[in-house]
Amino acid sequence: MRTEFDRNAYKRTIDSLVSAFETDAQRGLSDGEAKARLAQFGSNELRQHPRPGFWALLWDQFNNYLVIILIAAALISLALGEYVDSLAIMIIVALNAVIGVVQESKAEQALEALQKMSAPHAEVMRDGSIVVIPGREIVPGDIVILEAGNFVPADLRLIESVNLKIEEASLTGESVPVEKNAALVLDDEVALGDRRNLAFMGTLITYGRARGLVVATGMNTEIGLIAEMIQSFEAEETPLQRNLAHLGRILGSACLVICALVFLYGLFRDTHLAVAFQGDLVGYFQNEKKDIINLFMTAVSLAIAAVPEGLPAIVTICLALGMQRMIRQNALIRKLPAVETLGCATVVCSDKTGTLTQNEMTVVEGFSGGRRFRISGEGYAPFGAFSNDAGVFEATGDPDVAALLVGGLACNDAWLEAQTAQESSAAWRIIGDPTEGALVVAAAKAGHSRDAVAARLPRVQEIPFDSERKRMSTIHRVAAASPMPVGDAPYLAIVKGAPDVVLDLCTRALVDGVAVPLTETLREDIRAGNHAMACRALRVLAVASRPLAELPASPTPETLENDLVFIGLLGMIDPARPEVVEALQVAHRAGLKCVMVTGDYKDTAEAIARDIGMLTPGGIVLTGAEIEKLDDATLAAKAADLQVCCRVSPQHKTRIVDAFKANGHVVAMTGDGVNDAPALKRANIGVAMGITGTDVAKQTADMVLTDDNFASIIAAIRQGRIIYSNIRKFVYFLLACNIGEILIIFGAMLFGLPIPLRPVQLLWLNLVSDGAPALALGMEKGDPDIMEQPPRPPGEPVINRNMAFGIAVVGLVDTIAVLTVFTLALGRYPDHLAAVQTIAFMTLCISELLRALTARSETHSILSIGWSSNRWMLWALAGSLLLVLIVVYVPFLQPVFDTVPPGWSDWLLMTPFFFASPIAMELVKLHFRRA
């Protein structure tokens, strides 16, 4: 019966699959059958869920409580005749909506990048002939022809393979090309990266050739499953979005309550109201209509004062400035709210290859002549030193080491290429297999170049690497003297491969430049050297040789690969980045849990994690197979001690993210491949690699690392904490200002005083005078101990208990100071209310500007952070003070703002009260430092 797809094709024989898909392994499908299946199963392409339209995105931007309050504030300002303020608020709202729509429209481009990975054309068998068809027309049951350089056009069960290697890093996380074998039939459940008889859509053939049976197309492929997972995850609100929404609801409710209380209290305070209840109520309202309207307008103005109108704009600007700072930290933010979300991250799930490590296989150790030696140096740069227990030595002076390096270079197809003239690791690259490239670099460190070795030992024949033989052999003509054990032979065979396999083919060993019989003792020493390297998760290769008296007519493994001279072992690893250890220490001090999530093997992952300090005593290591056996609750329970996850699939990565989120964590997940995309989207913060990352990962992620460096993640988290801290600072500052204004008006009404501040003065304070210092607070560099603090709880509101206490104290002190100076000024100018209100206005303005200096840290004294460390604050204070003086001293503005220029005696009256709230805030900080 015809099958649409087979998820367990790796467990089945070729014959059973050919029968199930009703095809012919040699002739393929007929053209008519292929068309019928295309109509039945659909095109071999990734399908996209419908996206929300422009109007839906726009509505989402306005469907916010705080935005609705701001719109209401704009309409009320318009009703009050404050056209400039109304226009400013509406511009703020429109700007936020535009930014939101643009961000949302760019956020879902991952599927487009996935679709680009599909092969545009493919060679298939149709009616016994090879034809080239568009990749989208491939159907289940097609027989596909694959060669080096091809992209795999669908998920295939290999039915024939010759020296086949496929680059699957983007899908499985495997750092080197995977050797494939069509003859394998796997019995057990295995990870995606271990299904060596399958080829997956979107992966690249790097070596060899093959034929494969299409077992899945389109959305049924492994890459299709990833596309479905990406589209199925709903975007979650960031902690800041939730907190600001909560704050908006509180402020909106407070506005309504304040407006009602002030208006009702004003009515009841009026002695005429008592008369109204005893007499004609309608007549009362007709007689006092103007006063009631003025009272209502005052209450409404006070309610507007309760809303920090500039808050959304300042938050947006602060996040945008944070994005610019993060670019300098090698972190490119794709989604604006992610800037802040980084600040409350509690778990960092990091890929290994290229993020924790350098993604450059490097030979670090060798074994020759019965002795172990070490090789220093970084990456692919051909600079390093050779050392042993006796110290540094010249590799060219040791015949055994020299023969080992030359042998590894000669039996090798990789090239080392200089990209720039600079002598740094980044200036060099390897062309070819990374493992072979490591051998080339090791030889170059000893001064052996490929051209020089090729001149002395030109290659004349070879037997390519075979996954079953686990070795490669080359035959060279001896054209000049070399450190290899050649004797008088005109030809030399060199064999490179797995140590246990090569050692079994050897009868002699090179010791001090002489081939000696391979005794059992020497054989055990070699095995012990191999075991020691393997225990440190080094990938070990053995090199052996055999002098040949004549050139074989047709070399075969059976005739050539025997009676070999064992030369030595070379151990390599993708080394950890040198800065990662320090970054992990910073992360641990900051209370961050760091977890390695990789597609590599357990031994390698454990060794790297232990070496850099990520795997600690008591830490749990889980493989993908082990994760598969755990239910969600058990996995979540183990998450507290989980430190390394290896050989994982895309589904495992999303389950790991969900396990941490189930425990209340905010998760940052890194990745570079297609396989990482679902987890990147599922995480609170998806972090893609900019250098090695696929377009799919980059389009899905919230943040892209331009240097693929784990240390940049920690630097970005630090910046995220600073940004959130700055947001708290200006929320603290603005709300303390607004609460003070509310209490001043309400206190004056309570004590029977005239209203100290005009509505237009309140609006000027909120939109102009306070705005610039609040924006400058967003430019703070952060407290020096910000990475010594634990992550903040994600559910913690912006206004926590400490901030609420500080706001109350500062607001109360502002009220006492302003009402006191207002009362004193009333005694000085009993018949000139505008002059008295100007003095109150000036006192409050300058007091708030001075308090902005102390608001630069919630805990540290202004004396410890310095007066001038934020030059933006100095400019903001100077600009705001100038604006205050302009509305007071410029004649044509005085009628607009109901101001009267104060004299020198008025300044002497006000000056002591300027410092009341700044001193109060410093005392509050002192209290919390002691607590």
UniProtKB/TrEMBL annotation:
Classification of source organism: Bacteria, Pseudomonadati, Pseudomonadota, Betaproteobacteria, Rhodocyclales
Pfam families: Cation_ATPase, Cation_ATPase_C, Cation_ATPase_N, E1-E2_ATPase, Hydrolase_3
Protein known as: Ca2+-transporting ATPase
Domain of life: Bacteria
Keyword terms, alphabetized: ATP-binding, Cell membrane, Membrane, Metal-binding, Nucleotide-binding, Translocase, Transmembrane, Transmembrane helix
Residues annotated as transmembrane: 62-80, 86-102, 250-268, 292-321, 730-751, 803-826, 872-892, 904-924
Principal subcellular localisation of the protein: membrane
Cellular compartments per GO CC: plasma membrane
Cation-transporting P-type ATPase N-terminal domain ranges (all copies): 8-82
MF (Gene Ontology): ATP binding; ATP hydrolysis activity; metal ion binding; P-type sodium:potassium-exchanging transporter activity
InterPro entries assigned: ATPase_P-typ_cation-transptr_C (IPR006068), ATPase_P-typ_cation-transptr_N (IPR004014), ATPase_P-typ_cyto_dom_N (IPR023299), ATPase_P-typ_P_site (IPR018303), ATPase_P-typ_TM_dom_sf (IPR023298), ATPase_P-typ_transduc_dom_A_sf (IPR008250), ATPase_P-type_domA (IPR059000), Cation_transp_ATPase_P-type (IPR050510)
Originating species: Propionivibrio dicarboxylicus
Membrane topology per record: Multi-pass membrane protein
SUPFAM superfamilies in UniProt: Calcium ATPase, transduction domain A (SSF81653), Calcium ATPase, transmembrane domain M (SSF81665), HAD-like (SSF56784), Metal cation-transporting ATPase, ATP-binding domain N (SSF81660)
Subcellular localization(s) per the UniProt record: Cell membrane
